[in-house]
Design a protein that fits this description.
By secondary structure, the chain is an alpha/beta fold. Helices cover about 50% and strands about 10% of the residues. It contains 23 helices and 15 strands. The strands form five sheets. The protein has a six-stranded mixed sheet with strand order 4-3-12-14-13-15, sandwiched between helices. Strands 6-9-10 form a three-stranded mixed sheet. Strands 1-2 form a two-stranded antiparallel sheet. Helix 5 runs antiparallel to helix 7 and helix 19 packs antiparallel against helix 20.
Length: about 600
């Protein structure tokens, strides 16, 4: 077939055998039985897995059994051993449940069949029904909780089965008490002791507080584009329940692909005025303009104004349509090159641009769409940009991803957990992140305005989703420090860096790749002792990873090839940092000698 750009592509249809392999190996084994074993055998960690031997596997805690599936269990890295979700049940709940299953089927096949049907239809039957695609956005174990409850029935029956076996069918109170006590300790007691620290949410308010941080990253009466559940539902909560920053209109880009949600935007919500939209209802109705191909017209030279593009889409003139395979004509985007006019007096008057940046204001925001198509949510963003005319501040959540920015990221200003669209273009490539940093705004937000959900004061459990959010925060702190260093505000840079480690201490937020940039910031302000301390901790973490990855047999090592490369890359960067960028004769040489074995010819 031909895509929107006219390029010919071939689809290889899977064979029946390949489909069956996918069903049994991925959909059933990985996406159901793995979750089942989490609950009744043990769990490796809470990191979402996609098939390698270090993320999200089930384990038993019995070394030789785990090594048959996951390779050597010696020299395990901290991402496994120090993860609170590293839970070992030694197969005891599974064994007790199997005993109960066998016991029930031997005693009462009819009741056993009923429990088995409950187990099947709330477990594997859901797998067959959902037909899940690979690389799910999150682990899906919650979908099968009812089947785990069904198996728990057999665990209960397993206790009675042991009693019946030992007492030989005769009533014996001492045996009953003994069996109950032993199994209570061996199964639910063990599970409670292993699970408590990674299931408790005590003192953790990160969901609520991060939501407030998104809103506090915005000026009054702002429009904030978010994407996905984790970035949106907490914001709805704090606005609806706590009535916090109800002046900000939160727009979920996923839902913006539906007509009912676009129409909701036309209404006032809380203290937020209706969103300015000009596209008529018939143009955003479901099934209409869900997908608009980009078909570039050669006669269009340069960039066209977004106002003109929206008028082009609104038009009913057949000359503004292109035919599709059915003979029907549909709307399309005639060019990737767009622009938005800038009213310099207005953006200065309403504070979009501070007076001292007036000379940097562009006459127009000119950019290029990076995709060969536009979805309904992209079209609605363009409609808002056209009709807003710099009246309301427009922000994109920093976690939405490049695809959601429709190519506008060079005109973003980092203001916390959101980027504000401003008529100032980023100069040069910078640090590879969207937009530029206004140090005054960002410093105030991070140092004074933001909330930290308890991770700064308590020993709380930060699961993978929470830890993923802190990656963005660490990047933001590092970007702020970079900008302050560039402005020669070294004292403020140090305060910002100290704040980053104060609000994200290692015992709650383990050190990761992004801590390396904070260490480099410390070097940049002359705090070599503090930087060296962080570097040594990172070396300890990633050296252990490299040692473990290199100890794996080839069939297991292939699954962590990228992880090995990343760990080596981090170690190499630390060597370069301490020997070349910020050379320290003694410390740098010691580090170089320590890590040299991992970069030899045999380790490539």
């Amino acid at each position: 077939y031909q895509d929107a750009s006219g390029e010919t592509k071939v689809i290889n249809t899977p064979t029946f055998g390949e489909n069956m392999s996918y069903l049994f190996n991925y959909q059933m084994t990985w996406m159901y039985w793995r979750y089942f074993m989490w609950n009744f055998a043990g769990r490796q960690n809470d990191i979402q897995g996609h098939g390698n031997v270090i993320h999200g596997n089930w384990i038993s805690g019995i070394k030789f059994i785990d090594e048959m599936r996951l390779g050597t269990q010696d020299n395990l890295p901290e991402l496994i051993t120090e993860n609170r979700a590293n839970n070992k049940y030694y197969l005891l709940p599974l064994i007790l449940g199997i005993i109960g299953l066998v016991f029930q089927f031997t005693r009462d096949k009819q009741d056993a069949a009923i429990v088995m049907l409950l187990f099947f239809f709330t477990g594997l039957a859901i797998v067959l029904y959902l037909n899940q695609y690979p690389l799910q956005p999150r682990e899906r174990d919650y979908a099968y909780a009812a089947s785990f409850y069904a198996f728990a029935i057999w665990i209960g029956l397993g206790v009675y089965a042991l009693y019946d076996l030992i007492s030989r069918g005769k009533s014996n109170g001492i045996v009953a008490i003994g069996i109950t006590a032993v199994t209570l300790i061996a199964v639910p007691g063990l599970m409670a002791s292993e699970n408590w620290d990674d299931h408790t949410r005590a003192d953790r308010y990160t969901g609520r507080d991060f939501a407030k941080n998104y809103l506090d990253s915005c000026e009054p009466n702002a429009i904030l584009f978010t994407n996905g559940d984790n970035d949106t539902f907490p914001l709805w909560y704090v606005q609806e329940v706590e009535e916090y920053r109800t002046d900000v209109r939160v727009i979920n880009l996923s839902l913006l692909n539906t007509d009912w949600y676009v129409n909701q935007m036309r209404l006032k919500a809380y203290e937020s005025d209706p969103i300015p939209l000009t596209l008529p209802e018939k143009k955003i109705r479901q099934g209409t303009n869900d997908y608009l191909p980009v078909y570039e017209r050669k006669q269009i030279k340069g960039h066209i104004d977004v106002d003109d593009l929206i008028d082009f889409i609104k038009s009913d003139n057949q000359q503004t349509k292109i035919p599709v395979g059915t003979g029907e004509k549909i709307d399309y985007i005639p060019t990737k090159k767009l622009k938005i006019a800038v009213d310099k007096e207005k953006v200065l008057a309403n504070g979009t641009v501070p007076a001292d940046k007036a000379d940097q204001i562009v006459d127009e925001i000119a950019w290029e769409i990076k995709k060969s198509y536009v979805l309904k949510n992209d079209l609605t963003i363009l409609d808002i940009l056209s009709s807003n005319n710099w009246e309301r501040p427009i922000y994109f959540a920093s976690t939405t991803g490049l695809a959601s920015y429709i190519g506008l990221e060079d005109y973003f200003r980092a203001e916390g957990m959101a980027y504000r669209l401003v008529p100032i273009k980023k100069q040069g490539r910078g640090d590879g992140n969207p937009g530029y940093v206004n140090s005054d705004i960002l410093y105030k937000r991070l140092m004074e305005d933001f909330h930290w959900g308890g991770m700064d004061t308590d020993d709380i459990y930060m699961d993978e989703t929470n830890r993923r959010m802190t990656m963005s925060l660490r990047i933001t702190f590092s970007r702020l420090a970079d900008q302050l260093i560039a402005e020669n505000k070294l004292d403020k840079a140090k305060l910002a860096l100290d704040k980053a480690f104060e609000v994200m201490p290692e015992h709650n937020v383990p050190y990761d790749y992004f801590v390396m940039f904070l260490a480099e910031n410390y070097y940049g302000i002359g705090e070599f002792e503090r930087a060296n301390e962080i570097v040594l901790r990172l070396v300890d973490i990633y050296e252990k990873e490299v040692i473990y990855y290199q100890s794996l047999d080839p069939k297991y090592a292939i699954t962590v090839k990228n992880d090995l490369q990343q760990a080596r890359g981090i170690l190499n960067r630390l060597v370069v940092m301490t020997n070349q960028l910020y050379p320290q004769k003694e410390f740098g040489q010691e580090l170089n000698q320590r890590l040299a074995p991992y970069f030899g010819a045999n380790n490539q």
